[in-house]
Specification:
- Four copies of one chain form a homotetramer.
- With 264 residues, chain A is of the alpha/beta class.
- The first copy, chain A, has one domain: Rossmann fold.
- Helices cover 34% and strands 24% of the residues of chain A.
- The first copy, chain A, has six helices and eleven strands.
- In chain A, the strands form two sheets. An eight-stranded mixed beta sheet of chain A has the order 1-3-6-7-2-8-11-9, sandwiched between helices. Chain A has a two-stranded antiparallel sheet with strand order 4-5.
- In chain A, α1 packs across α5 and α2 crosses α4.
- The first copy, chain A, is globular and about 45 Å long.
- Chains in contact: A-B, A-C, B-D, C-D.
- β4 of chain C pairs antiparallel with β10 of chain D, so a sheet runs across the interface.
Chain lengths: 264, 264, 264, 264
């Protein structure tokens, strides 16, 4: 397995905070972090690809091939009380169990070079039913963080959050070994993966922006989500089908009932 | 695949014996070694994680994220006839066949640094029926050990024990190449993995404590087991469900209704 | 996983263009590139094998064992306006998702040594129905290439080509990081993998030969395809059955009634 | 993945021939090579284990743990016309497709140190029906070998042998890159893997001993096979069941209807 980070530029950052929002349940983290990138006009400075991602490329714009990838953005604090940020978003998490560890270690070792000492990971907490006002739960890698984030309204309760699957959990648990304080913010969501949940993303963002002293109009999120929704849905369809094909046969083949999709 | 050992402290040990008790059939080894750690008040000095473990974190205490891991404890002999010990317990064995070899080699090379020359691995022997007085079978990596341990009541019979699956077997078989004498103690158990078997663990511990000249009240084990049982059952449920998810789809979803509470 | 390139000779090439045509949907790329190799009498100079290919050997000629492999050919431009070429054909793509990345990176790093700065990858676009006059779509790794190849009749439309699975896509997307301009030419084809599609291959070749100023009689393709067809069909049967065996049991069994005969 | 060779002694061999006989269809190769080792009283000098073998240990003799492994034996030619031999037998081939390549490369690089320039691999050719007088087919990695071995009665016909799955094929095909001439001898056998076929093994041995000028009473093979049969059958049962378990769940569990088998 190999995982590579391709640097586009080398930003100079001062004591930056790392924020992760990759696809997952309800795409809560992906939506929240993607919105942050757009609203802050954060700048991309590195891309990560991994052989543990599915071996497909996505065609964007007129006809431009893009690897399945994760992308690092930076943003510099504008005013007193704001910190420099590194934000990670992406098309996918690993499609192999062991790939999660490799990708997360690669990410952590990379942000560590920027002297990151704090991180937020953003995720959805599947609760199996619709919720009008999603609560936000927190899981930390150091007890001292519980007190700090309770005052922003984060709920800490291991009776509600027993495990975290994938990058959002691994990043903070592995980050502990690298001396990075980490909190995972989990927004309640119904938990059907195909349904992006902007409401839950808003709840998570609300706490994140308060904690980071960011001036962002979260209400614009709904409109953005509608734009993202189609892309994210299509991405997921593509991946599910690609995986099915790999499990079924040797050569990738395009499912016949669909027009512009698979090519071998 | 990567497997890392994170050292918390560097104990100075004299001619230590290595004892392994990871989850397995009836959790016999895990219960026995966990009880030993608690009763001896053994001290943790290193943690091992591996990308061959499932990519999930467990939430303990109020809301603290922990990797799936194996943990090394040490204990120093207190009186004449007692030896220093390194005890390995953990949340899980590898979830990939080839991971077992990598994790076991990592463990062996690590304890080898402490000049370990003898080891016990603790496991369950599935016999398919309830047993009132579980017998303890032994499998060794050197013939000379058979005579030595027969006098403690260990039964040696390859008609009863034809194979050993996982860490308890691999550790002694690989350990042979590293010059470590090893015996696997197998307590008879019914063999349904979901059912921890304290009776079998007691039988194994009884032989182990006699061999090692340890003063431990094994009768307290039953109480401890009830405390552990809930944690171990949930851990297994969580893992089974996580694996199912990985086999079914691309994105991990957070299982709900889990709350493993951590016991020593 | 390991992937090795065995060099047979070291050609001196001037500013060569790299062309890939491996098996895939309708075997469009494989047929087109194989025909090119034969018509140009291109010379083999290197072979690639990978542990991500199935662990079987093919028996060619009287009784000669051949690894499943990819093969590099070179051809030197004969007249003004013709460029030196490196052409890659092969028996198979990776049979593991992560192997695609490893094999493609190995290929790219190898052709990079010959100072390749441009590449064509050839593939089929599955459209689910028979087509009388297959159109050729293009996907690029740099916008500037769209204008360049539109004049040869390539259609660029991400509504028709949303993703590319396997080597043809990964090579251009990864190649971008190595500074290699790449275009994937996709010939429309019905998309049943078992059915080689010479018509689609002709459409792709027609554009390729115009772009490269090659003098090749594409009409001879039909005859060649009939020769190749039997080999390619059997190759696929063999692989499908071998994979099924690996999924079913431990020991490989030799499939019978196979006789792939090798064609250039 | 890791594959290790543990050397027991360093024999001095003169221009040795390498012979492989690992488990496979009808266990033809394993039986033939195992008989050779016994009859020649060949001496073991190295063991190979791989993380691509199943993570189980076999309990032999009274209660002795053994890794699943491959074993290298040597024998020194006794009289004019006899060559020194390296014979490889073993419990298993790789249980993962890509492991076959890694294990075979490890084997080849190891025997290459002894300046091996010729090799025989022994296997079964599945023909789907009982055969009274099994024929022996050959597949080579160099045309010149066809003429050489035809005179010993080997049949060369790629209409009958289209592919070879696993070590016997990979060893000769990879060996070609290392400058080792190789022939795979395939004895016709019905092809049900659970049924060892001594008749086919005899046919293969008959050709091998003639080629190598060995004085061995092949008729004793039947008796030996009956001794081996039970071990081989049990080995296969164990592995099939272990694999099933790994595919089904996390922890190895013992099937309940069977007495002395699985331990976790």
């Amino acid at each position: 397995m190999s995982t590579e980070i391709v640097e586009i530029k080398k930003p100079k950052l001062k004591n930056p905070i790392f924020i992760e929002g990759l696809p997952g349940v309800g795409n809560v983290g992906r939506i929240a972090a993607g919105f942050l990138v757009e609203e802050l006009k954060a700048e991309k400075f590195a891309e990560l690809w991994s052989s543990s991602f599915l071996p497909i490329v996505l065609v964007h714009k007129e006809a431009n091939a893009h690897l399945i990838k994760n992308e690092f953005f930076f943003w510099k604090g504008k005013k007193r009380g704001q910190r420099d940020l590194i934000i990670l978003i992406g098309d996918s998490q690993s499609s192999e169990p062991s790939g999660h560890y490799e990708v997360c270690m690669k990410i952590l070792n990379y942000v560590k070079k920027f002297k990151v000492k704090e991180m937020f990971t953003l995720a959805g907490l599947s609760i199996g039913e619709k919720v009008e006002k999603p609560k936000v739960y927190g899981v930390v890698n150091d007890d001292k963080l519980i007190k700090k984030y309770k005052k922003y309204g984060v709920i800490f309760d291991s009776n509600k959050v027993g495990t975290i699957v994938g990058a959002s959990g691994l990043l903070i648990a592995l980050g502990k070994y690298l001396g990075i304080d980490g909190i995972c913010l989990l927004g309640e969501t119904i938990g059907y993966p195909v349904l992006p949940d902007p409401k839950s993303a808003k709840a998570v963002l609300s706490i994140l922006t308060k904690s980071l002293n960011l001036d962002i109009d979260i209400e614009k999120l709904d409109k953005k989500v509608m734009e993202m929704e189609e892309f994210l849905k299509r991405l997921r369809d593509v991946e599910t089908r690609a995986l099915t094909q790999f499990l079924k046969g040797l050569y990738p083949a395009k499912p016949k009932e669909e027009k512009p999709t698979y090519i071998g």
